Amino acid sequence: MQNLTVENVGKGHLLSDANRDINKAVEDCLARPMLKKARKVTVEIQITPEWDAQTETVTPLIECSSRIAMPAVMMKQYGVVENGLVQVAEVQSDQTPSAIRQGDLEEGELERKRKAVNNGE
Question: Which side of the chain, N or C, has fewer Cβ within a 10 Å radius?
Fold first, then answer.
């Protein structure tokens, strides 16, 4: 019988699943660097004693999992890219898309909007 280790729990799948989730978190950081919220990988191992009354023995029941939690960004906005400029729609809540007023998004304003998104505003 082998001693219980992270390498062999779950027949080795826990370690490979955790490694996969870590790589996903790193890839997401590289893909969305403006999103400053942490990506979280959780490895959980639960060991519960199971009593067998017939044999009067205790057997440990081992359950394991690896999960990843990545922050979501919820944002809706109408906009277009024209001649290399990003144009962002300024919409009042009672307007329809056909009533949208387009305005050029200046460089400083773009950075301010990115920071607002990252801060959850």
Answer: N
